[in-house]
Design goal:
- The protein is of the alpha/beta class.
- It is 43% helix and 15% strand.
- It contains eight helices and six strands.
- A six-stranded mixed β-sheet has the order 3-2-4-1-5-6.
Length: 206
Amino acid sequence: MTDRLLVLVRHGQSEWNLKNLFTGWRDVDLSPQGVGEAKAAGRKLKEQGLTFGVCFTSALKRAQKTLDLMLAELGQTGLPITRDQALNERDYGDLSGLNKDDARVKWGEEQVQIWRRSYAVAPPGGESLRDTGARVWPYYLHLIQPHVMRGEGVLISAHGNSLRALIMALDGMTPDEIVKFELATGEIVVYRLNEDTSVASRSVLK
């Protein structure tokens, strides 16, 4: 029986996560804690005995570095890796680089919360979660899902919002449900798919 394995991992804490800054497409590195989270994720995957045939990540180094650190812990370096901005974090536009507390002072708590947590409202010059999904979903269907269905074992290292958009589609979540769903840095979600591409099982590795 084919093991149609798909594993999603949010990158470890970044330097700007630590500083409470809106990051989006800004290319910042992992913090020391983030390096530790990435290594821990790799160890958790190894404990589960999971093996992969192909990897996908974004065009941003915090996700790429997380992937490299996980693969080193797994002892599975040298796998094919595709890096694509389709998996990038949501673009926060004019908020990028701003401290979240300063943004609340400038625009108000309610407006910033709408930009951060609504499904369809984008910050100025940026993307909504729906916009993010509009690039993530077709990329998954055309470039990633075929590998899963062939039983190759796919590992994705990406971002909170690009992964939330993908999880929304996989789990059939509504816009109201996905805005309440959080994914911590270094968190791992393991899927196995049915023959018809639907989800057979889903688990979160703690």
